[in-house]
Amino acid sequence: MNILLDTLRFLASTIPIIALASYLVSYSINKGIMEKISAKIEPILSKLNLDQITVASVAVCFVSPVAAYSMLAQALKEKKIDEKEVIAASFLSSFPATFSHIYSFFIPFVIPILGWAGVIYTALRLLVAMVKSAIGFALALKWRDRREVVKRKIEHRRVDPLKSTWENLKRVIPIMAATYFIVSILSAYGIFDNFKEIFGFLPLDPNVITISAVEFVNVRAAVVLAAGMFERGILSPKWVVVGLILGNVITFSTRFVKHSLPLHISLFGRLGVKIVVLNAIVTLILDVILIAVLIVLA
Q1: Cβ distance 93 to 58 under 8 Å?
Q2: Which of 74, 146, 176, 189 is at 20 to 30 A from 114, Cα to Cα?
Q3: pTM, whole model, 2 decimals?
Q4: Confidence band (pLDDT; 50, 70, 90) for 150?
Q5: 83-92 and 65-77 are packed helices; what angle lies between their axes, rounded to 10 degrees?
């Protein structure tokens, strides 16, 4: 009975926050906030001495990464840019692509559930994206050989905030309820304590691996699992963040192959494979560095 009450309490405390955040995000999208951000960013990027096609694609990426890559593919087909410039633009677009994901996923879901741990995790994901964009900026300057003036077109997305919020809640509430209920049962029977004793020789809290393993299956379930462990004092915020980043490392190949590879191959052919592989390798290295730094921190 206590387990059920704990689960209901968790849902009662988090669902209103998620609903409010989801509504505000959907409302802002409907009002064209991302398009306005894109319009403000483009003049700033234009002053960085980058190729204008690259500037336009990065600005569009704040609104739609697919549209941004489609623009690059068209420019490559028309020989307005070469393959090196496409690779540089793909790295440079890491920050706006991650920003749009944080806007649509991390703010309305991860942060409300994990609190400050979610804020830290979100900030680290942005940090990785910023480093990748910095790499892309350096490559773009090195490989740039023309300045093509490009007119970009961005279609304004229309979103019904109430409908979008309801669809999001229908998707996440069952995952939240089931995951938290299971965490409560396992915690009540001391499973996590046993797990920690068995794998105590590891240089990290063994329960971190549980989060990472669940993330391999479902990232939302992993976030709820991490929240449950944190509330019960099983994991500190530090290990919650490590677990989620480690989940990125474990699932990086599957994630890139399942989501990124089909799109890039359809747009760029063999070059698409190179783009995905290079971005995956750099992301993996940066995530491993973050994990190492977090582990050595007191």
Answers
A1: yes
A2: 189
A3: 0.79
A4: very low
A5: 170
Q: pLDDT tens for residues 284-293?
A: 899 999 998 9
Between the alpha carbon of residue 237 and those of residues 81, 120, 243, the distances in Å are 45, 9, 10
How large is the angle between the packed helices 261-268 and 270-296, nearest 10 degrees? 150
Written as six digits, the tokens of 298 are: 């007191």
Q: How far apart are CA 265 and CA 282, in angstroms?
A: 19
